[in-house]
Amino acid sequence: NLKSKIRLSIDRWNQSLHRAKEEDQAIELGIALETLLINKKKEKGIGSKLKSQSKIIIDEEHSKLVYDIYDLRSRIMHDGKFPSENDIKSKESFHHIIDTVQWKFPKMIKYVIENGIPKIPTTSSKNDNFS
Predict the structure, then answer these.
(1) How far is CA 78 from CA 16, 68, 70, 71, in A?
(2) How far apart are CA 85 and CA 111, in angstroms?
(3) What pLDDT sits at residue 89?
(4) What mean pLDDT is predicted for residues 62-82?
(5) What's the whole-model pTM score?
(6) Which terminal residue of the chain has fewer beta carbons within 10 Å of its beta carbon, N or C?
(7) CA-closest candidate to residue 27, choices 48, 45, 12
(8) Is 52 exposed, middle or buried (0-12, 13-18, 19+ CB in 10 A)?
(9) pLDDT tens digits for 55-70?
(10) pLDDT at 129
């Protein structure tokens, strides 16, 4: 249910604020975003979906950072190490990415409370503006 998702995502966001290591902050923040915005357990294209949904809630520039958090979290979890800054697509520093998404997260929570989880088109095409 939505109330549980919101409660858990706020908890994970709060944990991200109190972690000392950037990799731990990124993992917690990635979990918070997935918990808040993803409905299905085995959904494909989660990173792109998070970016698309966050475009609805926040501006496009910051939605790219949401994708970067997901990318960073995935690399840490799947590679077992913190990647170098050259390994991700973003031109921003890890510190900037994490801080900015942590700062924008309350706005995302407020949006979901007021409007529900954003709906995005389910059809994918190379011409979509979601990538």
Answers:
(1) 19, 15, 12, 10
(2) 31
(3) 67
(4) 78
(5) 0.75
(6) N
(7) 12
(8) buried
(9) 666 666 667 777 777 7
(10) 40
